[in-house]
């Protein structure tokens, strides 16, 4: 059985220091159903997240980011 994964970009409004950005990536990655969460250095306001929509909703990912005190919104792919 094949899995259908989805991608979403979390656009962060603030400029976060690299260590805080890495911590945020790690916290997103630990959400059940998230397969990847990473930021490219040339796009410091974006974290690309690949997730299993049967296990987690994109809105839940955004809620996690916001509970970290970060202002952000989702950008679909």
Describe how the helices and strands are arranged.
Layout: E1 6-12, H1 18-29, E2 34-38, E3 46-51, H2 58-67, E4 72-76
What can you see in these coordinates?
The protein contains 2 helices and 4 strands. About 15% of the residues are buried. The radius of gyration is 12 Å and the shape is globular. With about 80 residues, it is α+β, with helices and mostly antiparallel strands. A 4-stranded antiparallel beta sheet has the order 2-3-1-4, with helices on one face. A hairpin with a 7-residue loop joins strand 2 and strand 3 (about 45-50).
What attributes characterize this protein structure?
single chain; 4 strands; 77 residues
Radius of gyration over C-alpha positions, nearest whole angstrom: 12 Å
Major sheet attributes: 4 strands, antiparallel
The largest beta-sheet arranges its strands as: 2-3-1-4
Spans where pLDDT lies below 50 across 5 or more residues: none
Tell the overall outline: globular
Please report the number of helical segments. 2
Number of strands: 4
Overall residue-averaged pLDDT value: 93
The structure class reads alpha+beta
Helix content: 25-40%
- Strand/helix succession: EHEEHE
End-to-end gap: 24 Å
Give a quick rundown of the structure.
With 77 residues, the chain is of the alpha+beta class. The chain contains two helices and four strands; from the N terminus they run βαββαβ. The protein has helices at 18-29, 58-67; strands spanning 6-12, 34-38, 46-51, 72-76.
């Amino acid at each position: 059985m094949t899995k259908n994964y989805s991608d979403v970009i979390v656009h962060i409004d603030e400029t976060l220091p690299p260590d805080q950005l890495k911590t945020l990536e790690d916290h997103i990655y630990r959400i059940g159903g998230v397969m990847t969460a990473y930021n490219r250095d040339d796009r410091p306001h974006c974290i690309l997240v690949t997730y299993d929509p049967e296990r987690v909703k994109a809105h839940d990912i955004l809620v996690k980011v916001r509970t970290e005190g970060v202002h952000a919104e989702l950008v679909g792919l």
